[in-house]
Amino acid sequence: MKSEPGEDRELQEFQQTKSTMDTTVTIAVYASNESEASKAIDDAFSEIYKIDALMSPSKADSQLNILNTRGEVANADPAFIYVLEHSKYCSGKSGGAFDITIQPVLDLWKSKFLPEGSQKPPTADELNETLKLVNYSEISTENGNVSLKPGMKVALGGIAKGYAVDKAIESLKENGIENAFVNAGGDGRYIGQKPNGTSWIVGLQNPDRSEQYVTAIEARDIAVATSGNYERYFNESARVSHISDPRTGYPSKGIISSTVIAKNAIDADAFATAVFVLGEKEGLEMIENLDGIECLIITEDHRLVYSSGFKKYEAEGYS
Length: 319
What we know:
two-stranded antiparallel ribbon, EC 2.7.1.180, disordered N terminus, 12 strands, eight-stranded antiparallel β-sheet, alpha+beta, globular, metal-binding, 22% strand
């Protein structure tokens, strides 16, 4: 809640961390008292829980699972429709490098490395057949109803967390919180600043040494998201990246991680994935053509590649 002119409030930091959306979510706010902070944080988590209930791949009654099982959802929730539509927007901007209809390809790769699987990558023929089901333009969202072509499935792992972070931030603002952050498994959005006037500092992890940082960002009224192939694999021995290229069906190569700064978390989330898929040259070209979005790429040969406006966000001592 905004203070009246002349009213001197001592702001304190309040923070909660919970497990949801298959990750760890932390919400930190500066508020004048615990009851104000608790209500704001509870309401923000409620928004995240709503998104998880709609878009979780592990909840049988989520609209995502209903869509993937039945091929359609009647009277879909507006939030679900918004994420699908925004996914299509990001797909268009990335030339199809970001495409939520990638799920059949992910399923194919996963099936190969199950205990009863071949333990070998899919054949070119299997991939080409499965790629016929990957086409974001085939997602229909007319008159509040969502439908897919037979056999198609969507994966929201590259965008739903970002959207949930944005909804949580909106909720905090509605409760009068002006200085806060929400971080969901590496997708973070930061508003305002600390009471001493300093920005939130976001360290970017060195992929080879988890305790070290390659750089740090002064995060004030921005979102930051990182996509990387050093945390998740279908199968540890296969070392197959969890991020496949929707255009080819093969795991993305050439980049260890891509970090994107944007005004909101939904874009930071989606475009971090897109940069990872596109690779150094194409990824950088895409970012340079997007207003208000910057990126830092770590290549497999450990070079740091910056978009033209990224360094202005770097904390002192790193730029």
